[in-house]
Write a structure and sequence with these properties.
This protein is mainly beta and 145 residues long. It contains two helices and seven strands. Strands 1, 2, 3, 4, 5, 6 and 7 form a seven-stranded antiparallel β-sheet that branches.
Length: 145
Amino acid sequence: MAVEDGGSSRTAADAPLPRALCDTTELVSLGGDAPGGALWKLSEPGRQLDANVVRLPAGGRVDTHTEPDLDVLLLVLDGAARLDSADGGHPLRAGVLTWLPHGSTRAVLAGPDGVTYLTVHRRRPGMRIQPPEAADRLRRSHDGG
């Protein structure tokens, strides 16, 4: 029997199932003992999203950068931080959900107790192996040729 999902021929037996992936309360409970960096990453095959739980220790920062292609949602799970953007600094605390639109310039500076946050964005396409002439075409187009 086919599942009605806009024309897919997938059967109910092979349809993906929702499931719990991570207990963020457990990750947050590590507090200052948690290592800096990504504490968890979404890694399910066939996914359309990327997601990470990130820990910045006290005073840690994500340097100023611009994401040209992806909108990002950032949800603070624990601690506090400051989001610096073109219009100034914005305080972030547990429970604050922030939209970081593509094209925006931003930096994150962790507060005195550090910060743990979840980010979610559309998955970047994987790198594809291209024939050597593809690189030559790119070079010519950038050189004005």
